[in-house]
Amino acid sequence: MAFEVALETTPETAKITLKGELDAASAPRFKEIIEKAAVSSPARLVLFVNDLTFLASAGLRVLIFAKQKMGAGVQIYVIGSQGPVRGTLEMSGFHHSVYLQDSYGD
Amino acid sequence: MTRRVFAAHLDELAGLRQFVGEMARQAGLSPEADYRLRLAVDEIATNIITHGYEEAGRSGDLVVSAEVDPSELRIVLEDSGIPFDPRSRAVPSRDQLERPLEERAIGGLGLYMVMEGVDRFDYEYAGERNRNILVMRR
């Protein structure tokens, strides 16, 4: 499944929906969206990944980039990760730094 | 043995994963083992394409072969990029993996996922070609 990424911003929050396969070929598009989202200095970055079917380390590196670009104070939520995508986030220790949740209420 | 040749370009990764997924299903791997193998092959191929070829100013291809025997599925990636043994690269320690993202080093995560994901990993350099061998038990 081809990679798709969409951004929605409110004054406090940047919401990004990721679908399909996030690998080294598609990661630059995710990084571009993070740069766009960082312009408004959001307090929260919320990633919806229910339909993300593949996550390579190139995608994890974009999350590290997001934290470094937006500042250590930004809170990152990853919503709806399941199966091996969630396994990758946990194996690489990202659950210590981001909130892994099943759903997100505004 | 089944063999495919891919151009050394990141756009080829999706097709490469698809090929490996087909081989994993034919070998009867569980969906979970199939994913771990596809991820490991993807990470190794990404390193080869990016560091072995592109950053080194080289071009070439990536030859992928799959061999199934009664006990295991072996995926072999061969390339003529710069010699690189993934086992020589230190993977992040447990302590490093628990650090906040803003203090993380960027490298090493991919190879960590390779080494954690496959049942066995081997590397050879012969005839000016890298051979990365990823093995899953059936």
What does this structure look like?
Chain A has 106 residues and is α/β, with parallel strands linked by helices. Chain A has one domain: STAS domain (Transcription Regulator spoIIAA), CATH 3.30.750. In chain A, 33% of the residues lie in helices and 31% in strands. In chain A, strands 1, 2, 3, 4, 5 and 6 form a six-stranded mixed sheet that branches. In chain A, strand 5, helix 3 and strand 6 form a beta-alpha-beta unit. The longest helix of chain A is centred in the middle third of the chain and has 14 residues, at 57-70. Chain B is α+β, with helices and mostly antiparallel strands. Chain B has one domain (2-137): Heat Shock Protein 90. Chain B is built from four helices and five strands, in the order βααββααββ. Chain B has helices spanning 13-26, 31-54, 94-97, 109-117; strands at residues 2-7, 61-68, 72-79, 120-126, 129-137. Chain B has a five-stranded antiparallel sheet, with helices on one face. In chain B, helix 1 (13-26) packs antiparallel against helix 2 (31-54) and helix 2 packs antiparallel against helix 4 (109-117). The longest helix of chain B has 24 residues, at 31-54. The mean pLDDT of chain B is 95. The interface between A and B is medium-sized, with 26 and 29 residues.
Count of discrete structural domains of chain B: 1
Number of strands of chain A: 6
Quaternary structure classification: heterodimer
CATH class placement of chain B: Alpha Beta
Give the CATH architecture of chain B. 2-Layer Sandwich
Low-confidence stretches of chain B: none
- CATH structural architecture of chain A: 2-Layer Sandwich
Radius of gyration of chain A: 12 Å
- Percent of residues in beta strands of chain A: 25-35%
User: Considering DSSP H and I runs of 4 or more, what fraction of the residues of chain B is helical?
Assistant: 25-40%
Can you count the beta strands of chain B? 5
Q: How large, in whole angstroms, is the Cα Rg of chain B? A: 15 Å
